[in-house]
Amino acid sequence: MTIDALRTLLPIAGWSDERTRDVDIAGGTDPVLPTSFRLGETSSASLAAVGLAVSDLWELRTGRRQQVAIDVRRATASLRSTSYIEVGEKPRHVRSSVMGTYPAKNGRWSYIHANFPNHRAAALSVLGVPEEREAVRNAIAQWDAQELEEAIIAAKGAGGMVRSMEEWEKHPQGIAVATLPLMEIIKIGDAPPEKLPEGDRPLSGIRALDLTRVVAGPICGRTLAEHGADVMKVTAAHLPSIGTQEFETGHGKLSTFLDLRNPAELETLRGLVREADVFSQGYRPGTLSARGLSPEALAQLRPGIVCVSLSAFGHVGPWASRRGFDTVIQTVSGITHRQGQLFPGAEPGPQFYPASTIDYLAGYLMAFGAMVALARRAREGGSWFVRISLAQVGRWLVERGQVPESQLKGIPAEFTPEELARWSMTSQSPVGTLRHFSPVLQLSETVPRWARPAVPLGYSPPVWPARG
Description:
Layout: H1 4-13, E1 23-26, H2 39-62, E2 68-71, H3 72-78, E3 86-87, E4 100-103, E5 109-112, H4 117-127, H5 133-140, H6 145-154, E6 159-161, H7 165-170, H8 172-178, E7 184-189, E8 207-211, H9 216-226, E9 230-235, H10 245-248, E10 253-257, H11 263-274, E11 278-281, H12 295-301, E12 306-311, H13 326-333, H14 335-342, H15 357-380, E13 383-389, H16 390-399, H17 417-422, E14 424-429, E15 432-437, E16 442-443
Parallel strand pairs: 1-2, 8-9, 8-11, 9-10, 11-12, 12-13
Antiparallel strand pairs: 2-16, 3-15, 4-5, 5-6, 7-13, 14-15
Helix pairs in contact: 1-2, 2-3, 2-15, 9-15, 13-16, 15-16
């Protein structure tokens, strides 16, 4: 398995190619699933980067590095692990019947993101129809796709016009994203070096606040918990959530409700920040600044904090403040257009690749960035800002190139039952037995694991457990 994708990540941490000697990537090559995009290579590279960052922290504790091993098929399967989780007797989340891609005027296509009720209501209000797929199809057929895109965004919804890759390269936001690196790790304040807390795991004693939602950001927190961090998910009862997905992204975490509109609960969060090491958020750029939670404000509140920020389209360009999801990035950047050309569905038109690739890659890379920043804090001090977006990750995926069409025949759409059984585990949660994937990454000295089972949202009090 090529490690070229991993080599593109090493400079983010300031590492040389020599670090690849600590990594063994085996178990297959792309295509693993029916897509031309290199899901196996990029997932393996992202997880290998996490492993190297874990090894770096372990070396700070013990003076010893670890060897990192990745199985390509298992890494690829992890990109859709939410499809495999079983949560007691809870029914699996069913996507809205109106979510999807529809033909618009002049041969163009429009995507409606409708998983959250507020986004669904926004789209339906613009279209002026009830929540019925045929009514939505008929309404969209009367719209210019670009005009509908703007109308839904103006209504605080999410979606987009299907573009080709060539169109995205020429689009003002595509051009803006192309000016950005995949991820930035920026020093934003002075603070003395901080030795890692005592403990027998790479992230023992590290406390991370997870103010992210859906998949990408929560996977960052889950990954930190996998290596020993105390991770507290912070959300609010009034915010919509997606059923069983919250349990798949919640392994290893505490989970508390804090309504940041309430001054007292905002102050409770500030108290948690003062005792935290990592603050991870996935709101649109600037959204938390109004609450006094910008990276700069957090660095003043808690010198030495590592702030991790995820957005949809990046912090520059005309779309910097837009909502977006993995599927939206696929739609506007040409991925669904290309997938539909090579793997047409039951109906003609654009198609999504068979995994939540951008989401998971972003989550793994956020965790990688957070750990690199923690190591820098230990060595040189400072407060740090890790910044990334789904659009930047999507660009990285596309830049890795595509599998030649001649190699895209007869690719199984699913992993074997034996593989899924081998990669799975059970854990006991307050909602019953969970059956889910176990950690993918393999390390030579520390075994990745979750010390806590996933719990329902809001299950935990807003109080840090004692370190160690």
